[in-house]
Amino acid sequence: MNFNIIRAARAVYNVTNLENSRRFYIDALGFVETASDDEHIYLRGLEEHCHHSLVLKKALEPSVEVISYKVQSEADLDALAEFFMDKGMQTKWMQKGTQKAIGRTLRVQDISGLPVEFFAEMETVERLLQRYDLYRGARVQRIDHFNCAVEDVEKAYHFYINELGFACSEYTTSDDEKIWAAWLHRKPAVHDVAFMNGVGPRLHHVGFWLSDPMSVINTCDVLASMGYGANIERGPGRHGLSNAFFLYLRDPDGHRIELYNGDYLTSDPDFKPIRWDLDDPMRQTFWGHAAPDCWFNEASIVLDVHTEEKVATKEPKLEKKKPTIII
């Protein structure tokens, strides 16, 4: 392959009420508002130098417009366009100026039907990492990963590894050794994207990195004090898989985000992916508490990058089992 995908970089959530979203994401969670207008709010974490990592876009109903990866250069975008064309996958160019603060982007419905975007250029802004006077709520630092429900995990796994150059950190198999879930990365951490067996394509969540576990605990206190206790869906806790400390939240439109801290380095070329059996109790939350049913069954619908219509979902190829390892 002659392109270089760097990392998970941004998501565009369609939301129904920008003011409700502003109160949740900015006032409660402490995201930084880089810019806004009547139709959008552009958010970033405290350590991020890119203009935004999350766009909240006003719409009639909630959905996910796109999940985006940053690439090394503009030449990588052209190489990716050629790659997808050779695969018979229709692409869509978004020219510079059509989206705020970002250069030209390449959009495509990926092998699972997820709306994926690639870009090389985004305006830079001041990093606020050491502006501790601005820290509040969750003290969100940066975007970390996407987690997606797909009907055929093995198909997604092989495409992203063999065709797009991702590597696997951990995976779960069923009794017949079929891949039930997989955590794939480009940056040297546990994942940029995870795929799990489920009704799909849908986006389960976007994960954001926090500086320490106490930021997760502080988030719970802030949310409860502001009347958002019911928005805490799962956690706080520690994942068995990845060892990360976590908290899952639902925003006012039902979109799920994970606040996440404490995974590990995967940069060594001889790093061996960690296999988990689906029935292994150690795959569960490290402390043993189970996930609620809604965390397993519910996820955000995604849109077609060409028509902007909802993408139809399909039942998964493997048996649906309630997992406790989605991260």
TrEMBL record:
> SUPFAM superfamilies from the xrefs?
Glyoxalase/Bleomycin resistance protein/Dihydroxybiphenyl dioxygenase
Pfam families, per this entry?
A: Diox-like_N, Glyoxalase
Q: Does the keyword Metal-binding apply?
A: yes
Please list the cofactors this protein needs.
Answer: Fe(2+)
Does the entry feature the keyword Electron transport, yes or no?
no
Domain VOC: residue ranges: 7-121, 142-262
Read off the InterPro entries from this record.
DHPA_dOase_Mn/Fe, Glyas_Bleomycin-R_OHBP_Dase, Glyas_Fos-R_dOase_dom, GlyoxalaseI/FosfomycinResist, VOC_core, Xdiol_ring_cleave_dOase_1/2, XylE-like_N
Give GO terms: molecular function aspect only. Answer: dioxygenase activity; ferrous iron binding
Q: Which key words tag this protein in UniProt?
A: Aromatic hydrocarbons catabolism, Dioxygenase, Iron, Metal-binding, Oxidoreductase, Repeat
State the family it belongs to.
Answer: Belongs to the extradiol ring-cleavage dioxygenase family.
Q: How does this chain assemble?
A: Homotetramer.
PANTHER family linked to this entry: GLYOXALASE FAMILY PROTEIN, GLYOXALASE-LIKE DOMAIN-CONTAINING PROTEIN
Fetch the NCBIfam families from UniProt.
Answer: HpaD (TIGR02295)
**Which protein, by its recorded name, is this?**
3,4-dihydroxyphenylacetate 2,3-dioxygenase
Report the source organism.
Answer: Heyndrickxia camelliae
Gene for this protein?
hpaD
